[in-house]
């Protein structure tokens, strides 16, 4: 999905690039490497939210190559960092899962305000643009106004929606939506859920119930569970991700608000901490502002300005 240019992604990564760029560029460009300089690279990477452990690993590699006499210049260090980061981020299947037999069910989870509902609209639009039929399930019956918010998106995008009353059991809404998806023969059912903190046990249990109901109606559902993380929250997003992975069987990350942060390095940290791939990134507030996560393009964008590769 989303066969588009990388422009929007670059826009999002550009801020992170500026952060890494500002420090690494002045640090490394045109300079000879030495041990002290290599230590400073680590600080620059941690500042960009790559994560302490990974930053150390990356820098260790630079140090090894330096001691072997292979890496001599700042530019060599940049080359090593880029290659390592790309290797880290690639390899997983970054496409959204699809059921063998329609409907495919995509469950969207995350903490309050991370960008779930907006991300549902983005995915709905992208799928519809590919000619696939989409049904939305407004299973956030917790927050007043949540159903109305998704309804507005459904009207703007021209896709159907199944909703319950405010305060209704979200699992019941999921049940009705699954039935409707089968009856209407839609390709993909997108389930929006209430924002919940990773400390709210009752709400976390509710997710399990939603999953159970979906699986009962549709074999293998949910086929994809996307955890929406707010990229501007950096390391906190990683802590959330750990808990959600445990309780919600997260299969992919939608990294929202990448346009609003200089800390896009979190994309790398998340993948490292979870072993779950970042599949999509959000780079703005409109339904067009979504891109597939492209490890090559992302890493290049992180280092834009450092070299032209
Ligand atoms: N800049 C930017 N803003 C975003 C992006 N995604 C979502 N937002 C904004 O973030 C805010 C929260 O988005 P929602 O989609 O309502 O978040 P949510 O997770 O559904 O929130 P709750 O249902 O209350 O938990 C809104 O103002 C969105 O417009 C993004 O990729 N970039
Ligand atoms: Mg919402």
Give the mean pLDDT: 83
Number of helices: 11
Following the backbone from N to C, one meets helices and strands in this order, namely: HHHHEHEHEHEHEHEHEEH
Provide the list of bound ligands, each named once: guanosine-5'-triphosphate, magnesium ion
Largest sheet: 8 strands, mixed
Unreliable stretches (pLDDT < 50, length at least 5) are 1-13, 305-309
Helix content: 40-55%
Separation, N- and C-terminal Cα atoms = 26 Å
Gross morphology = elongated
Question: Which strand order does the major sheet show?
Answer: 3-2-4-1-5-6-7-8
Quickly give the structural class: alpha/beta
Radius of gyration: 21 Å
Strand content: 5-15%
Description of the molecule:
There is one protein chain. With 309 residues, this protein is an alpha/beta fold. The longest helix is centred in the N-terminal third of the chain and has 22 residues, at 7-28. It is elongated. It is built from eleven helices and eight strands. It has helices spanning 7-28, 35-47, 52-67, 74-89, 116-129, 146-157, 170-184, 201-217, 235-248, 266-274, 295-302, and strands at residues 104-109, 134-139, 160-163, 188-193, 224-230, 252-256, 278-282, 290-292. β7 and β8 form a beta hairpin. The model is unreliable at 1-13 and 305-309 (pLDDT under 50). α7 (170-184) packs parallel to α8. An eight-stranded mixed beta sheet has the order 3-2-4-1-5-6-7-8, sandwiched between helices.
Task: Write a concise synopsis of the structure shown.
This protein is an alpha/beta fold. The chain has 11 helices and 8 strands.
């Amino acid at each position: 999905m989303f066969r588009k240019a990388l422009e929007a992604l670059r826009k999002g990564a550009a801020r992170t690039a500026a952060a890494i760029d500002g420090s690494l560029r002045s640090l490394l460009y045109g300079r000879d490497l030495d041990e002290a300089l290599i230590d400073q690279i680590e600080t620059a990477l941690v500042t960009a939210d790559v994560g302490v452990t990974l930053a150390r690993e990356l820098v260790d590699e630079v140090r090894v190559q330096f001691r072997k006499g292979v890496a001599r210049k700042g530019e060599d260090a940049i080359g090593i960092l880029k290659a390592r980061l790309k290797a880290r981020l690639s390899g997983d299947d970054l496409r959204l899962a699809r059921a063998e037999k329609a409907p495919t069910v995509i469950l969207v989870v995350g903490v309050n305000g991370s960008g779930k509902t907006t991300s549902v609209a983005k995915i709905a639009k992208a799928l519809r643009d590919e000619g696939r039929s989409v049904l939305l399930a407004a299973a956030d019956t917790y927050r007043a106004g949540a159903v109305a918010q998704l309804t507005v998106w459904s009207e703007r995008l021209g896709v159907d929606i199944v909703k319950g009353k405010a305060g209704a059991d979200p699992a019941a809404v999921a049940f009705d939506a699954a039935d409707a998806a089968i009856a209407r023969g839609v390709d993909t059912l997108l389930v929006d859920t209430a924002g919940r903190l990773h400390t709210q046990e009752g709400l976390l249990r509710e997710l399990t119930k939603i999953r159970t109901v979906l699986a009962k109606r549709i074999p293998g559902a949910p086929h994809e569970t996307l955890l929406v993380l707010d990229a501007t929250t950096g390391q906190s997003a990683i802590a959330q991700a750990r808990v959600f992975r445990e309780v919600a069987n997260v299969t992919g990350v939608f990294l929202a608000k990448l346009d609003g942060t200089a800390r896009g390095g979190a994309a790398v940290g998340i993948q490292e901490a979870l072993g779950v791939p970042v599949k999509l990134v959000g780079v703005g507030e409109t339904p067009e502002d979504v891109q597939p996560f492209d490890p090559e393009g992302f890493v290049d964008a992180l280092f834009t300005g450092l070299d032209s590769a």
